[in-house]
């Protein structure tokens, strides 16, 4: 059975699919990352100290990445709101349909809480849907974070969690990717005067 | 001997990182080029020595629990070392043509070398990764530096290619990571902790995992890695990134990064074979192989810009590697080993030729080159060697390797797949042969009168040609060699 924390994580991801403002999307993903860290911290008492350290690292990641994104947002204010290709309800419908389909396709894999499996898979799929359906480069970067949060949720829901060294390695890689993504966003903004990914559609065969 | 191997492995990884950081301190541009060239020579020497030692030793050697030096890794390590060395040595020819780009002009050169060395260091470490999660971390680590290199010239098209590469490969690797978590979760209580189990241990332990979750994990990992390899149908970033990156970086992307991730996919197949069974593993690899060939061939028939043509050729050749690994017979694996080396040499030469080509015929950035034999014999020679080898013309090593793979597939009972692949390879050959004729003997495009600097390319072309001749003349020894016997034993 899917619990309230799983529903909330998925709802926050769907929020990123539909919201218009980039600042709201950043707040939603930061909240999602913090909730994910809180879920991991709640599981920590029954597990080893490595898991506790990994959970604390999740908190640090949420705050660090959130701060970096807010800083980037302040440096790249859009002159006018980006008009998306698809209406919010259509985007949400696509994301929900894909999440349900993917959750139904993947068999039970043995996470400690069975309800965590569809939630984790849904987060990965919704993250991909955000990248595919949103125009703003900064929100596309948030899509990567949502998908990665799905994997982090699955990792913390696996019995005993994943070894600390791996969690830290993944977090380090993720932070590097976010730093590079924000550098790209700023450069694209500087070149085009907007963080609109659809302006980058010149390469065709 | 073990201590020497450990020292060489560490040097291969740490030396390029140290060089990249040291170049940040170089006060003048010329000095940075010299430091880079010397460091690249040292790094390649360490990696090639390591590769030779690994090929000579009967058993794999562990490196500080996180690394392993074995025969499959040694083959890929050699290719990455040679391509990395040539890319660093040929970078000055490219850098003289650049100004302000992604980075400020005054720091562009040092940032370029830092990113190039970090990218190369991560690539050199991938074949040495002792376990699945380390390999994943290293493959992911290649993304940040290489994405910045793809967008190095800062043009709109380069930003598009770099952004697409960053986003699509990160999504792919996130899916692969989900597969790893699924595998670890499925193993709990049955096979113990798998996350840090080395490759051979992983193979032994996964036998206890039920088929369903193991197959799910395998498919997720392979689909995720396919996005980084550029296997169709998840190859969308590949032509754009290869065509927009600086030529030495395109060479590393195509001839080193893609095969390095293919090796990880191969290791995953080998490790999960007991849990998923040979047919499932074979079907996934053959599916990616045929799809990549089928998608690549129509583009090889079109008059594409030079680097885009090479990019679609990469798609084709990664498809050939997928088929060879999927067939899995001794002869096919001999073909895979030969193909990795031959492709690395021929493809990198093709990309290195792009630097003087774009100086001489700027229109070649968007259109197919023409009449190079008349415009510049050196450039024409390099393009000709690259194209004819990549097309699989006999007696090039890629002709021999493709023959090995097809015959190996037939011997393993995959006659229908072999027939389809043979037709697709023949069509690819015709497409590249046509490109060869157009590029060399067609009517030259308008070109700049001043001479492009072709001396570094001439040296690279001579070295690559010598390497290709050496591969062709020794290829017949491979199928009966102990190397292939051990590759087959490891892979089965």
Secondary-structure blueprint of this entry?
The complex is a heterodimer of chains A (205) and B (492).
Chain A: H1 4-18, H2 22-43, H3 49-75, H4 88-105, H5 116-133, H6 137-157, H7 164-192
Helix pairs in contact in A: 1-2, 1-5, 2-3, 2-6, 3-7, 4-5, 5-6, 6-7
Chain B: H1 2-23, H2 29-56, E1 61-63, E2 67-69, H3 71-95, H4 105-125, H5 132-150, H6 156-187, H7 199-206, H8 211-229, H9 237-244, H10 247-276, H11 278-300, H12 306-327, H13 330-352, H14 354-360, H15 372-375, H16 377-391, H17 397-411, H18 415-441, H19 455-474, H20 482-491
Helix pairs in contact in B: 1-2, 1-4, 2-3, 2-4, 3-4, 3-10, 3-13, 4-5, 5-6, 5-10, 6-8, 6-9, 7-10, 8-10, 8-11, 9-10, 9-12, 10-11, 10-12, 10-13, 11-12, 11-18, 12-13, 12-17, 13-16, 13-17, 13-19, 13-20, 16-18, 16-19, 17-18
Question: Would you give an account of this structure?
Answer:
The complex is a heterodimer of chains A (205) and B (492). In chain A, 73% of the residues lie in helices and 0% in strands. With 205 residues, chain A is mainly alpha-helical. The termini of chain A are far apart. The model of chain A has no long low-confidence stretch (mean pLDDT 90). Chain B is mainly α. Chain B has 20 helices and 2 strands. A two-stranded antiparallel sheet of chain B has the order 1-2. In chain B, strand 1 and strand 2 form a beta hairpin. Chain B is globular and about 65 Å long. The two termini of chain B are 28 Å apart. The interface between A and B is large, with 50 and 49 residues.
């Amino acid at each position: 059975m899917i619990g309230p924390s799983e529903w909330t994580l998925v709802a926050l991801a769907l929020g990123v699919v539909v919201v218009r403002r980039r600042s709201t999307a950043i707040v939603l993903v930061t909240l999602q990352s913090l909730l994910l860290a809180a879920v991991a911290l709640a599981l920590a008492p029954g597990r080893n100290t490595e898991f506790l350290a990994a959970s604390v690292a999740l908190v640090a990641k949420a705050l660090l990445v959130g701060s970096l994104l807010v800083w980037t947002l302040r440096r790249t204010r859009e002159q006018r709101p980006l008009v998306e290709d698809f209406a919010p309800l259509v985007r949400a419908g696509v994301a929900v349909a894909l999440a349900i389909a993917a959750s139904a396709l993947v068999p039970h894999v043995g996470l400690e809480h069975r309800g965590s499996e569809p939630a984790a898979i849904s987060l990965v799929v919704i993250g991909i849907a955000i990248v595919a359906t949103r125009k703003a480069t900064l929100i596309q970067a948030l899509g990567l974070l949502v998908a990665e949060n799905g994997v982090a949720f699955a990792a913390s829901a696996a019995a005993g969690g994943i070894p600390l060294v791996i969690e830290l390695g993944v977090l380090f890689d993720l932070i590097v990717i976010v730093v590079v993504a924000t550098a790209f966003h700023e450069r694209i903004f500087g070149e085009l005067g907007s963080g609109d990914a659809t302006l980058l559609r010149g390469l065709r065969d | 001997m073990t201590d020497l191997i450990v020292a060489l492995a560490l040097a291969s990884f740490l030396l390029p990182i140290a060089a990249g950081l040291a170049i940040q301190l170089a006060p003048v541009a010329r000095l940075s080029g010299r430091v880079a060239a010397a460091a690249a020579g040292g790094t390649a020497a360490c990696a090639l020595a390591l590769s030779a030692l690994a090929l000579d030793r009967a058993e794999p050697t562990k490196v500080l629990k996180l690394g392993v030096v074995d025969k499959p890794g040694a083959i890929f390590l050699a290719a990455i070392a040679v391509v990395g060395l040539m890319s660093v040595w040929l970078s000055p020819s490219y850098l003289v043509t650049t100004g302000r780009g992604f980075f400020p002009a005054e720091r562009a050169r040092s940032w370029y070398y830092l990113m190039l060395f970090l990218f190369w260091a991560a690539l050199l470490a991938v074949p040495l990764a002792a376990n699945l999660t380390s390999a994943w971390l290293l493959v992911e680590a290649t993304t940040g530096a290489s994405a910045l290199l793809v967008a190095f010239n800062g043009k709109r098209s380069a930003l598009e290619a770099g952004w697409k590469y960053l986003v699509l490969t990160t999504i792919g690797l996130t899916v692969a990571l989900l597969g790893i978590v699924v595998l670890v979760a499925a193993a709990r209580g049955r096979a113990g902790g798998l996350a840090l189990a080395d490759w051979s241990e992983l193979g032994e332990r996964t036998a206890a995992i039920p088929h369903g979750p193991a197959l799910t994990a395998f498919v997720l990992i392979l689909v995720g890695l396919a996005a980084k390899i550029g296997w169709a149908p998840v190859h969308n970033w590949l032509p754009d990134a290869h065509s927009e990156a600086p030529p030495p970086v395109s060479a590393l992307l195509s001839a080193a990064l893609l095969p390095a991730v293919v090796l990880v996919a191969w290791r995953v197949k080998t490790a999960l074979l007991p849990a998923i069974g040979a047919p499932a593993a074979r079907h996934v690899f053959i599916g990616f192989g045929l799809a990549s060939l089928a998608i690549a061939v129509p583009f090889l028939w079109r008059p594409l810009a030079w680097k885009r043509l090479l990019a679609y050729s990469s798609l084709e050749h990664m498809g050939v590697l997928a088929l060879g690994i999927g067939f899995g017979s001794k002869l096919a694996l001999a073909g895979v080993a030969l193909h990795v080396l031959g492709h690395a040499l021929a493809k990198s030469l093709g990309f290195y030729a792009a630097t003087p080509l774009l100086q001489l015929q700027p229109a070649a950035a968007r259109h197919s080159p023409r009449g190079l034999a008349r415009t510049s014999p050196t450039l024409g020679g390099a393009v000709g060697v690259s194209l004819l080898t990549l097309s699989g013309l006999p007696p090039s090593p890629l002709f021999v390797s493709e023959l090995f793979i097809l015959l190996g597939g037939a011997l393993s009972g995959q006659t229908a797949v072999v027939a389809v692949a043979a037709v697709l390879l023949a069509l690819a050959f015709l497409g590249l042969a046509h490109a060869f004729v157009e590029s060399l003997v067609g009517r030259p495009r308008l070109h700049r009168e001043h001479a492009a600097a072709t001396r570094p390319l001439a040296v690279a072309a001579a070295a690559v040609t010598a390497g290709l001749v050496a591969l062709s003349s020794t290829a017949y020894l491979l199928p009966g060699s102990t190397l292939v016997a051990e590759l087959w034993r490891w892979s089965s």
